[in-house]
Design a protein that fits this description.
alpha/beta; single chain
Length: about 325
Amino acid sequence: MKKLNIRNLDKFLNQIIRNKIQSSLMIWGAPGIGKSSVVESVAHSNDLELIDLRISQLAPTDLRGIPVPKDDKAFWFPPEFLPTEGKGILFLDEINMAPPAVQGIAQQLILDRKVGSYEVPEDWFIWSAGNRKSDHAAVFDMPSPLANRFIHLEVSTSLDEFKKYALANKIDDRIISFLNFRPKLLHKIDKNSPSWPSPRSWDIADKLLKADLTVDPAIGSGVGSEFRSFCKVYSELPKIEPILNGKSKPKFPKDISSQYALTCALSVRSKNMDHYKNAFLYLSEKASMEWLNQCAYEASSICAANGDSKALIDVVTQNKELMKVAERLTNLLNA
């Protein structure tokens, strides 16, 4: 089984499409890490139609169709949601959560690219996804003949990957700062609660936060309580804008949660290269190299996404004070 992170899953799937490899493919991974989102993104970037079927919610007749009598015979009428033309990805999500009877019909689609009188069009890929038993998911064992016909990929995620997504999608910087401080809470399944933290649920929490609603329904009450305590720390930080405008250099906080919060806020709230420069100068004077590195790393992720990496490097190399620490900074900026 090939092990990949979310970013490399995107690259792998794009290579599959470019090389027109139509072997069926199975993506394994914990719930909430973005498997379905990557498949959707790959379909969009390759101008392919995507049919996303939650197999666990279907009955056998939903896939095979229904028998209709004609001339003393039964003809199977396939469902309207299966593709009949064009190019695309037929994505069978939650396949191992489906009962065996439904998996049996799906197996015909995967093995033979047809079921009954229906046949998958030539230019369609058949991909599947599912959770592992170790993820506390209610899954059924996949039959060996079915499993043996897949390309198997096991996917994981990391804080760095989520941060890049969060920065590119303007996730609230309090969430980014909190996860810098408590990285184990990026993804922590709670089998005793329907709400628990994952990349997907943090994305939902951001929407609740922006609507001035509690985040507990997305991430759970325990993690929600920790997050609110962290937000209280965040509200007591020195004002960010005067630092970014070069008008203030307050003392750097002593509390580690405040240090994480302030460092992240400086990088996320910077709107131009002067802001980055002033943030770097402030941290180079008031904080340790660890925090300057952290700020530079996050700033580099933001600027890379916006095509501003060279301009950020110029901020460092064109300033005498920052040139004193430029070697370590530029290593990060070029990463």
